[in-house]
Amino acid sequence: MEYSLPSDLSQVEATCRRILADINLPIDTMRAELAITEALNNAVLHGNGAVADKLVSVKTNETPDDVTLVISDEGRQLVQAMLELPAVDIDAPSGRGLALIQSLASRVRIIDGQLAITFVPFET
After folding, report:
1. For the purposes of burial, counting CB atoms within 10 Å of the CB of 109, is it exposed (0-12), middle (13-18) or buried (19 or more)?
2. CA atoms within 13 A on the CB side of 95
3. Under 8 Å between Cβ of 20 and 29
4. What would the pLDDT profile of 12-67 be if each residue is shown by its tens digit?
5. Is 109 helix (H, G, I), strand (E, B) or coil?
6. What residues contact 60, with CB distance under 8 A and at least 6 apart?
7. Which residues, at least 6 apart from 81, have a Cβ–Cβ distance to it below 8 Å?
8. pTM of the entire structure?
9. Radius of gyration of the chain (CA)
10. 74 to each of 23, 47, 78, 96, 106, how far by Cα in Å?
């Protein structure tokens, strides 16, 4: 599936809910919702600089083993080193987003400059 939204924070919640509604695997939706919301907020604010005519795109790939979301924006590309930065102070005004996403998702990678977030289903 593919989704897009303008760089408008008011569109993030609805887009996140559409994505979650389309996932068929039994994943932890609370963790996924927080991670996806944070990733979309980051793409809108930091990637696109909240410029309304720029878009954020999400592509999902669901297999029987996992679901991966690839999130891209029209700003500068991400690099793997961004995932390896040290944690920032909890009181810092920004800089905690990727660490938060990493703590919530099963796997986080940078693929061709885009953020890829993977969730695995519950154990049955």
Report:
1. middle
2. 10
3. yes
4. 999 999 999 999 999 999 999 999 999 999 999 989 999 989 999 999 999 999 99
5. strand
6. 1, 2, 3, 19, 22, 23, 67, 68, 69, 70
7. none
8. 0.88
9. 14
10. 25, 7, 11, 21, 26
pLDDT band at 77 (very low <50, low <70, confident <90, very high): confident
Six-digit token string for 11: 């569109």
Element (H, E) at 47: none
Tokens of 22: 């389309």
Burial 63-95 (b: 16+ CB within 10 A, else e): eeeebbbbbbbebeebeeeeeeeeeeeeeeeee
As a whole number of angstroms, the distance between CA 88 and CA 31 comes to 21
Beta-strand relationship, 67-72 and 114-119: antiparallel
User: Tokens 């953020």 identify what position?
Assistant: 115
